[in-house]
Amino acid sequence: MAKPRYWSVTEGPLVLPAVLLFTAVYLYPLSRLVAWSFFTPGFSIRHYRALFAEPAYVTAFVNTFDLSVSVTVMTFLLGYPVAYLMTTISPRARAIVLACVLVPFWTSILVRTFAWMVLLGRNGLVNHALAALGLVTTPVALIHNRIGVQIGMVHVLLPLMILPLYSVMVRIDPAWLRAARSLGARPRQVFLHVFLPLSLPGIGAGGALVFLSSIGFFVTPALLGGPRQITIAMLIDLMINDLLNWGFGAALALVLLVVITVFFVVFQRALRLDRVWGGAV
Amino acid sequence: MVRRREVLKVIGTTTAAVALGPFFHARPARADKGELVVVTWGGSLVKAQRKAYFEGFEKETGIKIKDDTPPTPAKLKAMVESGNVTWDVIETDLAAILTMRKDNLLEPIDYRKLDTRALDSIYPATRLPDAIGSKIYSFNIVYNTKALAPGKHPRTWGDMWDGKKFAGGRTMNFGGGVTPQLEIALLADGVPKDKLYPLDVARAYASMAKLRPLVNKWYGSHAEAIQLVTSGESAIACTVGPRGIAAKREGAPIDVEFNEGKLAADHWCIVKGSRNREAGHAFISYAIDAKRQAAMSQEVPYGPSNKKAIEFLKPAEARELPSSPENEKMQWWWQAAWWGEIGSDGKTNRERETEKFARWMVTG
Amino acid sequence: MSRIALWAVAGAVLGFLLLPLVIIVPTSFSASAYMEFPPRGFSLQWYRNYFTSRAWIEPTLLSIRVAVVTMILSTVVGTLAAFGLVRGRFRGRRVLEFFLLSPMIVPVIVFAIGCYFLFARVKLIDTPAALYLSHSIVATPLVVIIVGSALRTFDRTVEQAARSLGAGYARALWHVTIPLLRPAILSAAAFAFLTSFDEVVLSVFLGGPAATTLPKRMWDNVRHEIDPTITAVASILIAASIVVLATGEVLRRAAERSRTPAS
């Protein structure tokens, strides 16, 4: 295929600065840890065998996945309406909505997590409100369990869903929607068959951001969760920080990376997401 | 083609400038002489240490003390193994020292360089080849006084295990390893405090399983435990007693029962490869002095590692310290020997049991 | 009707986002020495604590500096990489993309240990430079994802039109493509800034007495006791962010007004 002359600029090399930075400051330092996971000091897969021999590590992987997937779905369900609303209102109203999304984001995760402890505790504001409304008679356990971690994580990660969604939605050409309407589509149909598919790249980006961020979450599950919410990141921290078992910690991290990679490839293939965000194939 | 090369060149130089720019910042001067980096647990603790030790030491020797926190074993190991030692003296507990010792991260203490008069009254058990006692802490029953009135409060670990006699959630530590949870589980199960070691691990876990349904939070840090009890989220905590006392003095609805508590010491250690070993020893020598330790105990309710320090305190000040004569009698001393034993797997008992505890927590 | 439902749902979500502020802001004025709600008494001691202490102000300034450099570095590098990944035609693009996203999955503590050895060798431990570089690794994946998704839906015909009208590649990029990608690039930059601004593990490992960031200072503060100083810090940052957002909005409107002649 003959390309027009102005395509002679190939943009592939633009990845080079990132590749250079990542090779020096990320790949090179990590290679040392990968080596530690295999050499103890002679070559050995002892760490990996220990890892798969214990059901506890598998359980921690499952906990991590359970939290990440459920939090991703929740942020999507809560974030989509907000992003959509932002595309349909005046610039002034949009600035206010945007401020509401961004202002809590400035509060450190640590402080927010403590705030949730105060809000959701047995003697917390939410339990008092529920009791005042007559909905409950004894305090409900809202923290130190799954729902507590989910509330805390969704709160932290919502902006990561809303902003990419908005930045894609805002560029959806209204002409498409007008065309659909003029062809007799009802609002619900316009939304389901035109707007939603066009916003898929935003969903892909937001979903990827939220899912990948929640894998490594540490502070929120540690403070708001119970034993069932012990994530793999928490165990890695225990191995590395407290027990100085760096080889095993690195092995856990490497397995995590491989598992997520496989999950992503399968997920993309299954949902044909490659067409929306896996590249212009 | 020319254009493309130009574009890439501009992008390249911009990136290089942004990436390399930071390197042209002046590096902070770190004098090898005249400065000592002391790493402790921070917060109100380091404030008290500055007042009781650092300021006087700086004045007396002219050596500036820079404090840093936290003394995490992982950072220490990275420092020592990379040969980039920026810490000189650290304060940490014996459990962490066991791990650091195994990885050869500490210098031996040269006792000839320490104040011999002060040394004589330092708890003998805290005079170790690579560490020397800095203060005494304890693990106690810490309870919410609104939920459990003092006088009708839990007095033994057996009470903490008894959900019928004492209502309310319990909180115990998940972070920081598995000691003293195993010892306390054995005490709750009826093992006398002088027959704890060697630990009957199986019995300890059987006892822990009985406590588990009562625990509404396995906490990660001791500050968190105090917050849980203060807010009434949990009625009873097994946590560091002196922190409970400190919160009580701030007006929190909280109190501490010293009976059956674990007594242990924090230690001063000198980091392997420290460039200021002389100054480090001088500092430690300064900080084991009885009078200065008494001043420290007036700031924060930890016990002095120098037994004579109690003499410089008023009875009222000494009463709430973990190592006051009355409180010491009610408690038991933590023994590191068993925890430091290395098994056939090359792991210390502490390492093996901490891993097992984490697995018990996840799957139990 | 559906409009009302949309406002109700979105309003509830925004309420949820703002809910912790209901605790954070009042607690910061509390007279009590620990976090409790409702706060007892009124006091400005936690603000005084913050504003009169170099131990708080210096970390704040350093954090801002580190976050700004991280934002610039990772937005530039990440945006370029997104262009290369989306528009480039080379083998292994997928693998490379995953490589650039993988810092989000690798637990920070693992990365921090590895980085320590690298920076120890080049004598960068306890300097801001160590934080710029390491924070950029953590922030760049966010930029790659956000800008990449916007680029994938980018209508290249606009750019082609500019080129066919005689604009060079760089000119078309600067005057057509970049402005159209602005919402994505701006949100990517915001996330990069905030990722750095709230990062604690790398700051503990690679920082030190000479390079202490605000989050590290906050963790140091709560490790021993949880007093309301951190809520005062949070309230100050919230106030600052509102001022920044409001100023930006005012400037944007002023610029718009000056562009469109008054009629």
Short structural description:
The complex is a heterotrimer of chains A (281), B (364) and C (263). Chain A is mainly α.
List keywords for this structure.
heterotrimer; A: 281 residues; mainly alpha; 71% helix; disordered N terminus; disordered C terminus; C: 263 residues
Description:
The complex is a heterotrimer of chains A (281), B (364) and C (263). With 281 residues, chain A is an all-alpha fold. Chain A has 13 helices and no strands. Chain A has helices at 16-38, 46-53, 55-87, 91-102, 109-120, 125-132, 146-169, 174-182, 187-198, 200-215, 219-224, 232-242, 246-271. The longest helix of chain A is centred in the first third of the chain and has 33 residues, at 55-87. The model of chain A is unreliable at 1-8 and 277-281 (pLDDT under 50). Chain B is of the alpha/beta class and 364 residues long. Chain B is built from 16 helices and 11 strands. With 263 residues, chain C is mostly helical. Helix content of chain C is 76%, strand content 0%. The interface between A and C is large, with 100 and 104 residues.
Order of helices and strands of chain B: HEHEHEHHEEHEHHEHEHEHHEHHEHH
Q: Count the DSSP helices of chain B.
A: 16
Q: What is the rounded Rg of chain B?
A: 24 Å
Instruction: Output the radius of gyration of chain A.
Output: 23 Å
> What integer is the average pLDDT of chain B?
91
Strand percentage of chain B lies at 15-25%
- Helix fraction of chain B, binned, reads 40-55%
Order of helices and strands of chain A: HHHHHHHHHHHHH
Mean pLDDT of chain A: 89
Helical/strand content category of chain A: mainly alpha
**Helical/strand content category of chain B:** alpha/beta
Distance between the termini of chain B: 66 Å
Quaternary state of this entry equals heterotrimer
